[in-house]
Amino acid sequence: xxxxxxxTSENSNGKFENNIIQKSTDKLPEGDILVKVEYSSLNYxxxxxxxxxxxxxRQYPHTPGIDAAGIxxxxxxxxxxxxxxxxxxxxxxxMNTDGGFGQYIRVPSSWIVKMPSGLSTEKAMALGxxxxxxxxxxxxxxxxxxxxxxxxxxxxxxxxxxxxxIKLLSxxxxxxxxxxxxxxxxxxxxxxxxKNILDRDDFIxxxxxxxxxxxxDLAIDVSGGKTLSAIxxxxxxxxxxxxxxxxxxxxxxxxxxxxxxxxxxxxGIDSASKPIKEKTEIWNHFANDWRLPNLNKLYRIIDLKELxxxxxxxxxxxxxxxxxxxx
Length: 327
Fold this sequence. Notes:
By secondary structure, this protein is an alpha/beta fold. The chain is 27% helix and 28% strand.
């Protein structure tokens, strides 16, 4: 069976290019489940894979896409029958296993989440890995503190993880301060639920390291780098910071003082390799008690042929919200 797929390949000049081609399901990797993909989504890791980052994808040609939602077409697992609506995110999907930027994927049954009642394949991909990461981050904060009325700082606020985190935290009645480098997106962030907005560069420059005035109870950092350094210096006593990204750099500066003088906690979040039970729990939250109002305002739907230009945008920080790919 042939299907349409975006394929990243390396040309004779050593440069990487993306093309939409016809592939055969016979060429897909081995696995228990063949899924006909209805929607996928664009993440920063996808853009790295699609531009030849060997730290993400070792061998090319390759089809990126770390997210996919669709219908099972063939299955060797009786618990996951043909016709079931499912979500696949993370593990090796889109990294070294052909991913969601193709109309079909074949994966192990252990990677599959059954679609909860209350979510569709479109809405699941509007959330995608970004929503899963935001949900895991909020859950980590909840395990260490109450959320209601707490002052919460969110960096990378206009990106996928950031905007979903703000929307969710707003629903949980937190007082949110958003950090962004996009001065033209302040109204967008206020509509999501941010009470205050800080310019990223001003925040970094005005913060004294390793400890500044303690202003925030909790934080979700998507940026890393200098932004994380400034966040660590700005937490109140007994504060909790969740770190889940490095778009601003993988190296940050701090000292022991925020930890031994203020009792702060820094928690790392990985959504890709989480046990399937924990992923399922987060998806069930989004289908029920975390159901986000006006989710449609957070994403755009594009065709596969529009992906290359969107990949360029996300790499240079010009993308806002989520991009969902309809197959």
